[in-house]
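INFO batch 0412 | record 1 of 1 | parsing
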Amino acid sequence: MYSLEVRNLTKTFEKIVAVDNASFEVPDGSIFGLIGRNGAGKTTTIRMMMGIYLPDNGDVILKGVKVGQEFKSRVGYLPEERGLYKKMKVLDTLLYFAELKGKTGKSVQKKAEEYLKRFELYDRRLAKVEDLSKGNQQKIQFISTILHDPDFVILDEPFSGLDPVNTNLLKDIILEMKSKGKVIIFSTHLMDFAEKMCDHIAMIDRGKIILKGSLSEIKAKYAQRNVSLTYDGDISFLTGNQIIEKMENFGNTTGIRLKDANQTQQLLKLLVEHNVIVKKFNANDISLQEIFVELAGKEDGGVK
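INFO prediction complete | emitting tokens
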């Protein structure tokens, strides 16, 4: 069952087609990733889903019905361009945004204080927002997004500006919300975050959806003849080898596409014979980053 359906959304700004006939489905109880490079159309798509932009064409469907005001009351939205009242105190800011969604009282304040403690900001609850660091302001913005306990959470580049510790905390909270049956939709250009967290994805490039569906099924499809390799040593001898279709270096790992799926043992033998220390050798495995590079290309952004 789909919680949300995006059908043929199109948006043009003057002569630029920002989103071009985009369609995808968000299943119940899932973490859904809208992924693509900067400028691909992610934010414009989300703004149309939220009713901030009116589409030139297309609809957003909630449980079979075109979205309206009811959806806005059920959603928590973290925009790419963060917006807080800098002169307000931290706790007052959180309570104000909760009140806008119809949530008031001691229970909301208690919940706000619990989140502040969790993000190690409780001692700054009476400070002005403008006195916080950019990263701490980002945490306040996130708390204000989820404080009213929305059914849908839409996060536009949620990990921007966060250090690794707070990134992990954010991920933990997202997973907790999923376990409670919430639907989480987030956009990102960081493929590793999407790969670790998402159940389903839609990949957008130059305004067009170029790939969508279950992440596990997508990876299984594209992983055929692929080996993910982590190693120490020199593997330059593989360049031009007759069993190799292509190689892609991602720093910590290298993706190797074989010409034939039956050549994985031959590849492993070659590595051992050349004294390469194999730390990780995953046959029929591929990263989301590799899939994106294959589909969207490295330089020109053209879809192959």
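INFO post-check: The two ends are 31 Å apart (CA to CA).
INFO record closed
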